[in-house]
Every structure is written in C-alpha cells, then in structure tokens.
Amino acid sequence: THSILMIEPASDDFADVIRIRFNGRKGKVVLVNDCVAALTQFDRVNPDVVILRDSVPNAEEFVGKLKLDRGRSLTSVIRIYPSGTPAGSKEFRIRENYAFTEPFEIGELFALADLELLRVPVSKKEMLHLTSFDFLSTPPNLEKAHRMARSLLGATGMHEDAAAGFLAGFKEAIDNAARHAHAGSTSKRITVNFMVGQGKVEGYL
To answer: Lower CB density within 10 Å: C or N end of the chain?
Structure first.
C-alpha cells in the first residue's frame, strides 16, 4: 500500500482532510508534529510522499537530510510555504519535489499527491538517488556546491579514478554556469540535478 508522511505543527482541519482523502483504499497517512520525529519514524513508515509544512521547525534541515540520503532521496516531498514566502527565496536550497504557497486549491494538492503515489514506487525500481539543489551564484555558495558534489559522489561507490574525473567535469560545469550568470553583473540562480541510476551517474544544470 501507498503511504504519506505528513509533517504539520498540529492536528488541524487540513491534516484531517488529508487523512480522510488518502487513508483506506489509497493507503495510509501518518501525521507527526516535528521533523525530528519524522526522521525517527521515516523507515518504519517508508513513505512514497511527504507533505511538509514549511513553518515546522527544522523543515530545511529535514529536506536536506532526506534528499542527500541515497536510500531516502526518491521519496517525493511536497512542501507548503506560507503566503508571501516564495519557494526560491533562500540563498542555497536543497529542493523539494513540488511546492505550494498558501492560499492554494487543495484539489491541486490531491491530484499531485495521487500522481506521486503512483510514480515514486516505479522510480525507486529504476533509480537509486536523486538530489536537486539551487543557489545564488556567489563564491560561498559555489564552494558549498562543490562540497555537496563531492559528498554526493562519495556515496555512489564509484571507483576513485572515475569519481575524480566526474567531479572535475561537474565542478567545471557549475563554475561555467556561474560565469555566465555573472555576465549580466548580478548573481543569478543555478540549479543542479544529480541522479544515480542503475549503472550510471548523471549530473546536469
């Protein structure tokens, strides 16, 4: 059966609507009120989809730990931001899969969650790891992107020589993107996608 892990500050009408919509024939909904509990229960719940309220403390750290973990990164994260808080406002962000900003049509959330509950189990059979991050092209963020690339490659199990060659090309691509971003004299956002499939590793911007 499918499962949804819902991270809400408290059990409220919104949480009740989600549970009514998805519990039963579509699977189960597990509600937790903080991100520490969510990580503790993650492997027991084994969710295909996480619905995360951005106002929950440590939401950013939760997404980072989830998406950088090879065994958990394919879980779809749907993040709900408060009104007036655009999803791409952070200088460096490990990306969720989808974002909604309040107010939004709950029917759109239902439809997206339905699609993800079908897609994720298939993706888990075809892929091993998927991490996306974006950042403003400043020197500190570029260095952070390089460190993240090294960390991601270190978890692939690639031969050391192959990993070193891939990392060099990956870093060059990031640096080239930054140079082009600065051509207009202002910092712009760069998006990096890192994927590990069956027998292959891909990184693209």
So the answer is: N
